[in-house]
From TrEMBL:
Lineage of the organism: Bacteria, Bacillati, Actinomycetota, Actinomycetes, Kitasatosporales
Keyword set includes Membrane: yes
Pfam families from the UniProt entry: LysE
Biased composition, class Low complexity, residue ranges: 109-118
Transmembrane domains' residue ranges: 6-29, 41-69, 174-195
Protein name: LysE family translocator
Keywords tagged on the record: Cell membrane, Membrane, Transmembrane, Transmembrane helix
Location in or out of the cell: Cell membrane
């Protein structure tokens, strides 16, 4: 049976991985900062479902076959890279369209437009603020990242004693990872909620989308380059 010391060591490793700024952090922060709390929690749920799937598949030996098969790994890597570049590029293109559609206005008209934009923004957030939409984005992003599979293949077997039920231990260790990740997600969403009012201006929202889109696209390019 696995020891508490082994679980603690595994928690330390995945805890450091969770705290490292990355794609998951960018997605959660951007979604929550725009006021889409339900969608943000959907992203968190989707990412953790992907983590649980990687843990279960690794304990069953499926991900070992993935990393052993060059064709399978390369296919997943290129599909994941294309998805991330597409997602980031779409965010960047949307900010360009929004910027070009705005026109200079007087102070009084600008204030009225800002009020209208805020109302429309709230309506837009309500329309796109769905748990299912966030879940789809989170789970697809996680499952199309072959580095998650490679990480679990490299780390998980070291914490599985010989003769122990591997599927159960795989789910248990993935559960430890999920608990730490959800705790970190709570902190990210709380922080995003505090700065949300500062992002009501269209220019601030465009800046956020440009930063997030660039980060996501950069992750996709790095994945394509095998880095």
């Amino acid at each position: 049976m696995i020891t508490l010391h082994a679980i603690g060591t595994f928690a330390l490793i995945v805890g450091l991985l969770t705290l490292t700024p990355g794609l998951d952090t960018a997605l959660i922060l951007r979604t929550a900062a725009l006021g889409r709390r339900r969608r943000a929690w959907g992203v968190v749920l989707g990412i953790q479902c992907g983590t649980l799937a990687w843990g279960a598949l690794t304990s069953l030996g499926v991900t070992a076959l993935l990393t052993a098969s060059h064709l399978a790994y390369e296919t997943l890597r290129w599909v994941g890279a294309a998805y991330l570049v597409w997602m980031g590029g779409r965010m960047l293109w949307a900010t360009r369209r929004k910027a070009s559609s705005e026109s200079p206005q007087t102070s009084e008209t600008g204030d009225a437009a800002a009020t209208g934009t805020t109302r429309k923004g709230k309506a837009g957030r309500g329309a796109g603020d769905t748990l299912l939409g966030g879940w789809r984005q989170g789970v697809v992003t996680n499952l199309l990242n072959p580095k998650m599979g490679a990480f679990y293949v490299a780390v998980l077997p070291q914490f599985m004693p010989a003769g122990a039920p591997h599927p159960a231990l795989g789910v248990l260790l993935a559960g430890v990872h999920i608990l730490l990740a959800v705790g970190w997600a709570c902190a990210l969403i709380a922080f995003a909620h505090m700065v949300r009012d500062r992002l009501q201006r269209p220019s601030a929202r465009r800046c956020l989308d440009r930063i997030t889109g660039t980060v996501i696209a950069a992750f996709g390019i790095r994945l394509a380059l095998g880095q």
